[in-house]
Amino acid sequence: MYPFRNNVCNLTWAVVKYHRFSTSALYSSQAKVNYYSHLQVGSEATQNEIKASYYRLSKLYHPDKNKGSEAAAKKFREITAAYEVLGNIRTRKLYDRGLANTEIIYETPTGAATHDDSKENGSAFNKTRQAKKPSKVYKGHTEQYNFDEWTRAHYSASFSKINESRQQREVKERMETFSKEEQRSFSLMDPLMFVIVSIVMIQIFFTSDYDDATLVDRRKLAQAEAAKKEAQKTPLENPDVP
């Protein structure tokens, strides 16, 4: 009744079977790697123990502390790849099962498949693809390591010290710049103040002399006028004259 829907369902099932076959070979090769030995823990270790061991080993074999050592870089990649699998509960369970029984078991579609069946197959196919992505190549620095809590705690003190030293250096530079500007302003102000003081002193000196000369002239003028008046008096007015 729905030939197109049946064809889509059959095609989806064929793709899923092919994907299961191709990924089983990939994960069977990965299952041979003993990730527990890379992290130096047993298969019964808790997630906290795995995480603590990863922190310890990643700090020990980090490329920044072992520059030029290819063996340390290889060891760091191994423990990082192991933690990518064992650090997550879901991927660890898949690894513990040997990745043979981790694939989703689908029932072979019989007869006419319904629309809901095709939707379930499609969603299961997408989940299978997401669960079976090949591991990416690690080159020493991984996203999980760079943004992990241990890394932030390990480098936060260094970053704070760098910021403090940078702020202190900026404050020191501003103080030196301010001191230089003050010295420059004082050096320019000294001759200017000398000129101003000189002008004021000259004005005071000449003004004082001018006032003294004016006062003497006024006294002389008053004496001359008094003598003139005495000379103009009549003999009656001036009894001293015979």
Automatic annotation (TrEMBL):
What single Pfam family name could you report for this chain, choosing any that match?
Answer: DnaJ
Q: Which residues cross the membrane?
A: 188-206
Please list the residue ranges annotated as the J domain: 34-99
Q: Which InterPro entries match?
A: DnaJ_domain (IPR001623), DnaJ_domain_CS (IPR018253), J_dom_sf (IPR036869), Mito_ATP_Synthase-Asso (IPR053025)
Q: For bias kind Basic residues, which ranges apply?
A: 129-138
Q: State where composition is biased (Basic and acidic residues).
A: 223-232
Q: What top-level branch of life does the organism fall under? A: Eukaryota
Q: Where is this region: Disordered?
A: 112-138, 223-242
| Keyword field | Membrane, Transmembrane, Transmembrane helix
Task: Identify this protein by name.
Answer: DnaJ homolog subfamily C member 30 isoform X1
The source organism is Diaphorina citri (Asian citrus psyllid)
Give the source lineage, highest ranks first: Eukaryota, Metazoa, Ecdysozoa, Arthropoda, Hexapoda
Q: Which gene encodes it?
A: LOC103507723
